[in-house]
Amino acid sequence: MPPTRRGRSKQASADPQSPELPPSLSPKTEKAKGFALIAASKVGKRYVGAYDGDFFYPKLHVPAELVMPVDQRPPPLTLRDLEAVRNLGQGGESMVLMARTTRNEHPLDRPGTLYAMKVVRKKMRRKIEHPKYHQLAIESERISLGVLPWNAFITGIVQIFEDRVNLYTMLEMAPGGNLLQLLSRKGKLSTHTAAFYYANVVLAIEAVHAADYVHCDIKPANFLLGEDGYLILTDFGLSARAHDDRKSWENGTPAYMPPEMVHFDGPPLSGPSNRPAAEVCEERKAIDWYCSGCLLFEMLANKLAFGGDNPLEVLRRKQQKVLNWPDGMRVGTHLKGLVESLLEPDPRRRPALDDVLSHPWLKGIDWERLRNKQYLPPFLPDKWKLSDTLYQGGPLPKQSQVPGLQVGKQHPLKVRTEWIN
């Protein structure tokens, strides 16, 4: 006669090779060891085996209870687990704070980890956006960063939060400041250094356009220097899909905007068009290449590409391609040709990605090596701590301005950098 279920259980328990769970342990103790005991009736099934990571217990002394492993992961971070410790900078409708984690309740918690926290006031976005597209506008940066695949030349999004006043986007922290600050300290860059940084810009634009997005705000202030000395593109607040007819394509930074973004020459970029969709998308992507030309000029000359006493004068210079080259500045033929082609007023005549990658001025760049970051950058942030960052964006906001985020003490600023010749 075959043994009953109870009989088989007794035989298995008597097996000297089978480790046994001490019968005196309470459920609380077993949970601490990696077990959670749940009544078997909740599942309608009895399990008599368990695994705690070290041993497999084939039979339990309490077969009426279900044994499940406990989730060892920490709970997700919330705003209350973060503290603002520095103001990194402010824009027209947002501010960027340095935030550090404070939670230390779980073995995997890492208090003191630093992130960049972009804070956008909901009220501000409601003022500047059409009500029909308001929700799309306030989510644009989150959507863009969430859709874009990870890339070494684009800032990574970590988490998103909100409270009754603000939207919060937590991003990777880049400790080296931004390219605009670097230019303000170093002045004009050599052609070799400018080529390295512009090649970084090209790869960032390549990644954005490959996902069918347009950044629309390429400028030195939006390129951060990572810990490895390479550039990282940030601030996707104005970005959109290249085929998005709902977006207002006239928003950007005036000094870097191409002429077509203000509707003076050529067909408008916004709204539906009778032209082929591919043609419209390419013209919208040409916005980023124009902005990159302004950035390249600024790295070489340490001044804006187009100067003027008023916006109309600046626009006239852009339409006529009157560049603001410094007196006596010597520029090579290939370099000057690249800058002037990027700053072409007609978007249909600007170079595309393949034209830039194969341009004679950049022929010394091994693009695959650059993508793998195998070049030594000309500038490296030194070993840094909380007080060693290059950022200085003013005082911290009041607690009432960021009700969901704890505001800590402002930390002193120390600049420690290293320039590699």
Automatic annotation (TrEMBL):
Source taxon at top rank: Eukaryota
Give the catalysed reaction(s), semicolon-separated: L-threonyl-[protein] + ATP = O-phospho-L-threonyl-[protein] + ADP + H(+); L-seryl-[protein] + ATP = O-phospho-L-seryl-[protein] + ADP + H(+)
List residues of the Protein kinase domain: 82-362
Q: Where is this region: Disordered?
A: 1-29
Q: Does the keyword Transmembrane apply?
A: no
Q: Which PANTHER family match?
A: CYCLIC NUCLEOTIDE-DEPENDENT PROTEIN KINASE
Q: Which GO terms describe its molecular function?
A: ATP binding; cAMP-dependent protein kinase activity
The record, for Pfam families, names: Pkinase
- The answer to whether keyword Transmembrane applies is no
Q: What is its EC number?
A: 2.7.11.11
What name does the UniProt record give this protein? cAMP-dependent protein kinase
Query: What general EC class does the enzyme of this chain belong to?
Result: transferase
Q: Which UniProt keywords apply?
A: ATP-binding, Kinase, Nucleotide-binding, Serine/threonine-protein kinase, Transferase
> Where would I find the AGC-kinase C-terminal domain in this sequence?
363-421
